[in-house]
Amino acid sequence: MLLVGQSAVLYSRLGIVLGPGHQNILKAVKWMVIIDGLILHILTTVLMYGTYQIRTNRAWARGFRVAELLQRTVYTIQELIISCLYVWRTVDFLRVVNDDRRKSKRIMRELLAVYVCSLLSIPQAPPSHVPKLTMATTATSSS
Description:
Elements: H1 2-18, H2 23-53, H3 59-97, H4 101-121, H5 130-142
Helix pairs in contact: 1-2, 1-3, 2-3, 3-4, 3-5
């Protein structure tokens, strides 16, 4: 749920940044978050339940590990898409609002630096919660 919650928070603020002229993009992002959340959470919930309840069959644990990897990958791509939309619209705002080219370039460089830092943190965020669950699942399924 943590990953879907992060996407939902980013989506909720995206409408402010995109503005009224980009409702189709906003709808597409909304449905991307909803569909990814439903499919991936149902998949991992079923596989986690199978892993904990059917301990003699290791296929459940293998499936769960694959589903976790798939979930991390999909959510990373989803976060990248939403982040790119934020940067795109913010750069447009800066071009319209700022008359001082020097100040505008400095702000764009800072924005780019923040974006690069956020890109570096996206793939690292989900795995920080996964190793404990994976180790618990593996230990449970092998006993």
